[in-house]
């Protein structure tokens, strides 16, 4: 996901992502991630939800820092600012979407987001 921002951190020359070749590389890598990597990641999240009882990543009645981090990462994919990543990319895993929405519906969180899962527009 980050090759577009700092390609030099991944063995490419600075400014690579601004070239035609770099743009195509970013596009192909992000599309591959959404098609192949993301479903694996979402499946693992579902597995964690299963093992914890279905509400949060860690057993208990309240979310933990693990949920805060996971939700931030998942929401990032749905905000529409990452080229070649559809804002509906999580919808292949409805349980993950429901998990995100449940977190965003917590009284402490509700109404704080304007884009992505948890926003009124989603």
Shape verdict? elongated
Query: What percentage of residues falls in helices of 4 or more residues?
Result: 40-55%
- Total strand count, please? 0
Give the low-confidence spans.
none
Task: Describe this protein's structure.
The chain is built from three helices and no strands. It has 122 residues and is mostly helical. The protein has a domain at 33-104. The radius of gyration is 16 Å and the shape is elongated.
Q: What's a concise summary of this model?
A:
With 122 residues, the protein is an all-alpha fold. Helix content is 48%, strand content 0%.
Provide the fold topology.
Layout (H helix, E strand, L loop, with lengths): L19 H33 L12 H14 L15 H11 L18
Question: Which key terms come to mind for this protein?
Answer:
122 residues; single chain; 48% helix; 0% strand; mainly alpha
């Amino acid at each position: 996901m980050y090759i577009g921002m700092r390609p030099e951190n991944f063995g490419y020359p600075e400014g690579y992502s601004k070239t035609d070749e770099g743009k195509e590389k970013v596009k192909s890598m992000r599309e591959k991630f959404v098609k192949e990597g993301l479903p694996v990641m979402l499946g693992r999240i579902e597995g964690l939800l299963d093992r914890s009882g279905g509400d949060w990543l860690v057993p208990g009645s309240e979310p933990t820092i693990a949920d805060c981090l996971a939700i931030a990462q998942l929401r990032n994919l749905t905000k529409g600012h990452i080229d070649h990543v559809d804002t509906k990319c999580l919808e292949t895993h409805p349980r993950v979407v429901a998990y995100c929405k449940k977190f965003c519906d917590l009284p402490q969180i509700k109404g704080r987001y304007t884009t992505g899962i948890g926003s009124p527009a989603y």
